[in-house]
Fold this sequence. Notes:
Elements: H1 4-7, E1 9-10, E2 15-16, H2 21-31, E3 35-39, E4 45-50, H3 51-57, H4 70-73, E5 81-82, H5 87-96, E6 101-106, E7 109-115, H6 116-122, H7 125-136
Pfam family, one: CBS
Organism: Streptomyces hazeniae
Keywords: CBS domain
Amino acid sequence: xxxxxxxxxxxxxxxxxxxxxxxxxxxxxxxxxxxxxxxxxxxxxxxxxxxxxxxxxxxxxxxxxxxxxxxxxxxxxxxxxxxxxxxxxxxxxxxxxxxxxxxxxxxxxxxxxxxxxxxxxxxxxxxxxxxxxxxxxxx
Length: 139
């Protein structure tokens, strides 16, 4: 059984909900990632911020990324998976919610992220084709 921990990209970091988007972009650049889980004051996930959110939801609307916070961009119900979860559970979670990145937690702590690239390295061609069809077909 392949687990979420075995396919995830380790070392993911939170961005506090109170942090500004310009700082979030700097952290994304430093970590070479396109998404950051957003944490509230109690270190509970309250969303995920993507580079696309910053560009489309802030900059393209003429808003100042030094005045908009990660929390301002948090929408919807955050999704995550336990590190011990089987890869089939990872796929089900990502496909059923049509998400492209999934935070991985262990003992209620963020330990990694699973992205499409991580899936591509660990799944069969048929599994990847099914994932792409389910996540992108109705986008």
